[in-house]
Amino acid sequence: MFTQFEHFAATSLMGSPGEAPPRQDGHLQFEREWEKLAFGVAIALSKQGYFEWEDFRQTLIETIHHWEATHDLTDPEWDYYQCWLTALEKLTIGTGLIQTEELEAHMIQLLDCKSEPQE
Amino acid sequence: MPSNYPGFKYSTDRETFSSAKAKALESLLIEKGIITGDTVNKILSYFETEMGPFNGAKIVAKAWVDPDFKNLLLEDCNAACEQMDFPEGMSGAEGEHMRIVENTPEVHNVIVCTLCSCYPWPTLGLPPYWFKDPTFRARVVREPRQVLSEFGVQLEESVQIKVWDSSAQIRWWVLPMRPAGTEGMSEAQLANLLTPEAMMGVATVKV
Predict the structure, then answer these.
(1) Measured in Å, how far apart are chain A's first and last C-alpha atoms?
(2) What are B3-37's pLDDT values in tens digits?
(3) Cα–Cα–Cα angle for B42, A104, B41, nearest 5°?
(4) Per mean pLDDT, which range of A109-118, B10-19, B109-118, B151-160 is the poorest?
(5) Residue pairs between chains A and B whose CB atoms are closer than 8 Å
């Protein structure tokens, strides 16, 4: 039944409650615009072969484990898509798609740009 | 010009920072020609429009109004799915068959599974987190009436409860009973009444 990569990628994350993306009523649930960007970019890059989906999955799991090891499990700061974004950053930099310096430079530009609406 | 950029400290404003990072990643990848401006939207629309519980809802609503379709659905779920105007691959191409079981005044059905891959994704969307909980599965098998009542489904003692354990070969889902008072409703209105929980057997359909 896994005829679509998107389908496969999302199901592969259903292994444990911690690893699975937040959902509501059978749909993916996004609370902030940037979560959608992080989600879509990760799937798109893997779909196009820039990294294996399993590598993303493992990086996400490691990131979540690292957070859990360094925080109280009831810490309200817990944020699934924060871990997702960190995993995506690690992989895009790790695979050489993006250089740390250019990412930083671009972020400075965005953070300095007052006219940019905050989401 | 002095920069407002405070350095890599989450304590300043994590939201602004995360938003900027996600946007920066996307726009750099667009600049490099790796993705395009509508890539993310295309991916998201796949999840929003082509895969989700509304597919199952449409099928159930059609079965409620069309007895021939209902018979086909109960007989051969995949063949029934093929009659719907769904995207390629929705009916389960690789020998992984979906089967639907019908709730009646005498029999109430519930589905369980320990592996995520056994969930009828094309019709019900993404499985809820508790569905994979080993405690949930074990308890549904052992004391289904009690578990159902915790979900708010109170069944008469006379109603038999059947628990269907999905496997890689057969993915079960439930055809709920059409509620009273829906006689004049269109298929689309009926579909709106359905929830993934109802099609898993842990809820009933309410008007």
Answers:
(1) 36
(2) 444 444 444 578 889 999 999 999 999 999 999 99
(3) 5
(4) A109-118
(5) 159
Three-state DSSP class for residue A18: coil
Q: Judge contact between A39 and B139, C-beta under 8 A.
A: no
Which residues span the domain enclosing B19?
Answer: 14-48
Distance, in angstroms, between B29 CA and closest chain A CA? 8
Question: What kind of architecture, by CATH, is found in domain A5-112?
Answer: Orthogonal Bundle (1.10)
B190's tokens = 């009926």
Contacts 24+ apart (CB under 8 A), B9-13: none
ipTM (interface pTM): 0.89
Q: Do B47 and A41 touch (CB under 8 A)?
A: no
- How many domains would you assign to chain B? 2
Q: Check whether residue B61 and residue B43 sit in a common domain.
A: no
pLDDT digits (tens, 9 = 90+) for A29-85: 888 999 999 999 999 999 999 999 999 999 999 999 999 899 887 888 888 999 999
CA distance B181 to chain A (A): 24
Q: Is B118 a catalytic residue?
A: yes
Whether residue B109 sits in one domain with residue B188: yes
Q: What is the pLDDT of residue A23?
A: 77
Residues B83 and B22 in one domain: no
What does the pLDDT read at residue A114?
52
The values of phi and psi at residue B23, to 5°, are: -65, -40
- Is B113 assigned a catalytic role? yes
